[in-house]
Amino acid sequence: MAKEVKNWHAYEAIKELHEEKLYPVQPMCKILNVSRSAYNRWVKHPYSPRRMANNELAKTVRAIHDEHPDMGYRRIKDELKRTYDQNVNDKRVLRICREEKIQSSIKHPANSITKRGRHPYYVAENILNRDFSATAPNTKWVTDITEFKYYIGLEVHKVYLSAILDLYDRRIVAYVISERNDLPLVLDTFDKARSAEPDAQPIFHSDRGFQYTNKKMYERISDAQMIQSMSRVGKCIDNGPMEGFWGILKRENYYGRKFTKKQNLTDMITDFIDYYNNGRYQRKLHVLTPM
Fold first, then answer.
1. Beta-sheet strand order (sheet of 140-152)
2. pLDDT of 4
3. How far apart are alpha carbons 68 and 174 in whole angstroms?
4. Which of 84, 92, 102, 266 is deepest in the core (most CB within 10 A)?
5. Could you give the CA distance from residue 237 to residue 173 in angstroms, rounded to a whole number?
């Protein structure tokens, strides 16, 4: 590459002197130790090797963006490395994105759907205390519920997604989709997680929604010998990784789209969680997938 860049500067000098001073090309090529044929090829395609390489790279970056418009330049860089075997730095990808006017989907603020119970059976302390690191699988789980809308004519319908996320590898341990934001939704999610990881005894962190402060939920957590933890009132940041997952899911596959069939919406959710667990590279996992 260094020799190509040096030759490119020589070609530029020869071209400029030939056009402005009418100096003959052949003697200048000999003096600057470049071949006449290589110079002639450069005249037909007057781009630096770096520029030509960036042009080719930009095509790949554009293809990645078209397939995944949610990806910012950092994730595009990771995709280049893992999928296309092109190891380039963040700044170079950022420059190309700016030149090509490539931007990721706009983030939307999270809307909380937490409903506090009028008479909570048990309210846990914030044991997790924003320590979102974990040294082993199934030592810290976080959970929450979010809602999605679909439309039949002018009627607005909703489905609710309950999920449990492992803070060690950020995988979704279990999830359930329902038309009702109720206690069975959360209990079923917990039961699925227990079936998937029967020996797990993690810190189990949630907000103070009525499902999580319910007696049946408390009994399930106690029977599993887990430690219950809850966010402080009005502090969604206490459950940051779960809120972050909702943001990723909705930004990449929900915002900007209008679903007119429930099946299409639930399929989108199911497909995304499979992609998130098995195909979406994460820098916190050293550019690997959770599973």
1. 172-178, 155-166, 140-152, 203-206, 227-230
2. 59
3. 25
4. 102
5. 21
Q: Does an H or E element contain 270, and which?
A: helix 262-278
Rounded Cα distance between 203 and 243, Å, is 17
Phi, psi of 197 (to 5 degrees): -130, 75
Cα distance between residue 182 and residue 120, in whole Å: 15
| pLDDT reported for residue 192 | 98
Q: What is the pLDDT of residue 1?
A: 47
**Integer Rg of the chain from CA:** 28
Per-residue pLDDT tens for 67-105?
888 788 888 888 888 888 889 898 998 998 888 888 887
CATH classification for the domain delimited by 140-285, as one of 3.40.50.12780, 3.40.50.150, 3.40.30.10, 3.30.420.10: 3.30.420.10
**Residue 217 · residue 164 · CB < 8 Å:** no
Mean pLDDT of 139-166: 96
Whether 196 contacts 173, CB under 8 Å = yes
Q: Taking the domains of the chain in order of start, what are their residue ranges?
A: 2-99, 140-285
Q: Does the global pTM surpass 0.90? A: no
Coil, strand, or helix at residue 54?
helix
Phi then psi for residue 258, to 5 deg, are -120, 115
The answer on pLDDT for 282 being more than 70 is no
Comparing CA positions, the residue from 65, 95, 59, 96 lying closest to residue 79 is 65
